[in-house]
Write a structure and sequence with these properties.
- The complex is a heterodimer of chains A (176) and B (445).
- With 176 residues, chain A is mostly helical.
- In chain A, helix 3 packs antiparallel against helix 4.
- Chain A is globular and about 55 Å long.
- Chain B is an alpha+beta fold.
- Chain B folds into three domains: 59 residues; 201 residues, Jelly Rolls (Sandwich), CATH 2.60.120.1440; 160 residues, Jelly Rolls.
- Chain B is built from five helices and 27 strands.
- In chain B, helix 1 crosses helix 2, helix 1 crosses helix 3 and helix 2 packs across helix 3.
- The longest helix of chain B has 28 residues.
- Chain B is elongated and about 85 Å long.
- Classes of the chains: A mainly alpha (176), B alpha+beta (445).
- Chains A and B meet through helix 1, helix 2, helix 3, helix 4 and helix 5 of A and helix 1, helix 2, helix 3 and helix 5 of B.
């Protein structure tokens, strides 16, 4: 086993995992698929790591592998799931390839600030779907509210966060 | 619809509440509007960052849940690249915060015990950095079991009585937590006899190419470098091919093969009637060894692969270098092979010089789990005029069972696989064929 190769792969993969995950989230409809495709793509990355010329090129190189795997995975669920058309996914992928390498990281920091601006109750609500899948329906039952109204509130809060992140990045001096 | 409605469609998409009609509309709008695509991509990044924030939030408010990679990394030593990949994928992707597997927190309480083992077996418990040599009766709290040599095996019994037979060489990780039992097999063979599992907490068995969900049943799993074969003897197992997420329900008396790629067929089919003869086809039937394609009249062969033996039954000895070839009827393509009275193995191969060679095979119950191993040694005399080639026939009776608890005779059982092995020296062992010949088969040569 090549320990140097292993440590190099681990380091690069860990450093760029958030960007790859966000890129994939643009292309496939569920988090389950994101995790599966990224796992599959990571195997290909490992196998082809020797072809990588320079560590700076890791992210765009990895994105190409991820895009290929995502488009293949999309085809397998195209008939029975709510998925975007291949043409749309290809357009999204093309444009997302151009994204600045540190964009996701900067937005992540901005999000922390934006979350602080929400009430505790709203903070918990926007994070609930990730912490407890199905938790929103339970919360609706517990608080005697309709799930639909909670989803609408959640949608509004997320949109508010997206705009807040944009503003934070502009204030920071970069582009949103 | 206006821009607000486009934004609402995007939110519904990422929250998983979008309808089919809305999906068609969102797709149409995205195709036509570059600005909306940028908004969609931003929403995807927000979704990613919120998921990450949720895991930080979880860790800040609960006890930390991230599984350390240190202990598992030790397991990587000595494994092939495939195992590395598996573990990398496991560690980075499966045990990440928020995943269902991560929720399967390791309990400090024992979850299973070693009921029996033979050969080189190492255990690395969760959070430990050093491997331990287990003893029969040792309680296990979750971790990785490495069964290194071809003549090794281990029997692990979970607290609920579910039995896992591991036939070496194999590497598996065990856990039992809030989401149920989890077994991750990165190489080797397993035979499982699973007690009925609690509702909503099925046992998950995960390999590089498949995931099996089990409520209670008896089945066998066999891995090679490119696929997983699952044969169900009792009950029913739901198998997902990881390459594309397609699912097969495998019933008793059926088997399925999940390959790493998506091109091959993934369909459960009857295990088929037993056959009584078998001849290896390399590299397809190889389980260990390096493939050497035939040329100039020379047949395809498997070159022995080197590995270390470090003691038996818990004893520590100076490592011994072994060279092994392992071959068996491919679980996916070949019907089960029954060992019959009077049957014999014919082994053809090559050595650089005369040497003592070990031969052995593993069996399983007909339509059942692992049941034993049988082994013997022979001095192979090489005739210099034969350019190192040898041919040897061994009857089933020539192989004593390796433990008293195994059946006295392998007759009536199915052949799992056959190994050929040399000790200490590399004498260039190559095996060109392994053949099972039954007394009634007419063409013996």
């Amino acid at each position: 086993m090549d320990r140097d190769k292993e440590s190099k792969f681990m380091r690069l993969f860990v450093a760029h995992e958030p960007e790859l995950r966000a890129f994939l989230r643009t292309l496939v409809p569920t988090w389950g698929m994101v995790d599966d495709v990224l796992q599959e793509a990571s195997v290909v990355m490992w196998e082809k790591l020797d072809q990588l010329e320079g560590e700076d090129g890791f992210l765009p190189w990895a994105k190409v592998i991820v895009r290929f795997k995502a488009l293949r995975a999309r085809r397998t669920v195209a008939r029975d799931r709510l998925v975007l058309s291949e043409e749309t996914v290809a357009l999204l992928a093309e444009e997302a390839l151009e994204l600045a390498p540190d964009q996701v990281g900067r937005e992540r920091k901005a999000l922390d600030n934006c979350l602080q601006k929400l009430s505790n109750e709203h903070q918990k609500l926007v994070l609930l779907p990730y912490r407890e899948p199905g938790g929103l329906t339970e919360l609706a039952q517990r608080t005697d509210r309709s799930a639909n109204s909670l989803y609408k509130l959640l949608g509004r809060l997320r949109e508010k966060l997206r705009l807040c992140v944009e503003r934070e990045l502009v204030a920071e001096g970069g582009h949103p | 619809m206006n821009n607000d409605q486009s934004g609402e469609l995007i939110q519904r998409y990422f929250l998983g509440t979008i309808s089919e009609d809305e999906m068609v509309e969102l797709d149409r709008r995205l195709k036509d509007d570059e600005g909306l695509r940028a908004q969609f991509a931003a929403a995807a990044r927000l979704d990613t960052n919120l998921r990450d924030a949720a895991s930080s939030f979880s860790q800040a408010n609960d006890e930390p849940k991230i599984v350390s990679i240190r202990a598992s990394r030790n397991v990587l030593v000595g494994l092939g690249a495939a195992a590395v990949l598996l573990l990398c994928a496991v560690l980075f992707l499966q045990f990440r915060p928020g995943s269902s597997l991560e929720a399967n927190r390791r309990s400090p309480e024992p979850i299973a015990r070693i009921a029996e083992f033979n050969g080189t077996v190492a255990w690395i418990g969760d959070g430990r950095q050093e491997e331990e040599r287990p003893a029969v009766g040792d309680e296990l709290t979750g971790g990785t079991l490495e069964v290194s040599s071809v003549d090794s095996w281990a029997e692990v019994v979970f607290n609920d009585g579910s039995i896992v037979w591991v036939s070496g060489p194999a590497v598996l990780t065990l856990s039992d937590g809030e989401s149920g039992k989890l077994i991750r097999l990165s190489e080797g063979d397993l035979s499982l006899d699973v007690s009925p599992q609690p509702p909503g907490k099925p046992m998950h068995v995960i390999t590089p190419s498949a995931e099996a969900v089990v409520l209670g049943t008896q089945f066998n799993i066999s891995l090679n470098s490119s696929s997983t074969s699952i044969a169900v003897n009792e009950g029913r197992v739901r198998v997902t091919r990881l390459a594309d997420g397609s699912i097969q329900e495998v019933e008793a008396g059926h088997r399925v093969v999940a390959a790493l790629e998506q091109e091959s067929q993934f369909k459960a089919h009857p295990r088929g009637e037993h056959v009584r003869i078998w001849k290896s086809e390399f590299p397809h039937d190889a389980r260990k060894g390096k493939w050497k394609p035939g040329a100039g009249g020379r047949p395809d062969a498997m070159q022995a692969e080197a590995h270390l033996f470090r003691g038996d039954h818990g004893e520590e000895i100076e490592p011994i270098l072994l060279h092994s070839v392992v071959a068996g009827p491919s679980g996916g393509a070949h019907p089960p092979v029954l060992l019959t009275e009077g049957a014999r193995f014919r082994i053809r191969g090559k050595l650089r010089r005369s040497y003592r060679v070990a031969f052995g095979f593993a069996i399983r119950q007909a339509r059942g789990g692992f049941s034993g191993k049988f082994a013997t040694k022979r001095e192979i005399e090489i005739d210099q005029n034969a350019e190192g080639h040898f041919e040897l026939e061994l009857f089933l009776d020539d192989f004593p069972r390796m433990r008293n608890r195994f059946p006295a005779s392998p007759v009536g059982h199915e052949l799992s696989w056959f190994w050929i092995q040399t000790f200490q020296k590399d004498v260039g062992l190559e095996v060109s064929s392994v053949e099972l010949i039954s007394p009634e088969s007419s063409s013996n040569r």
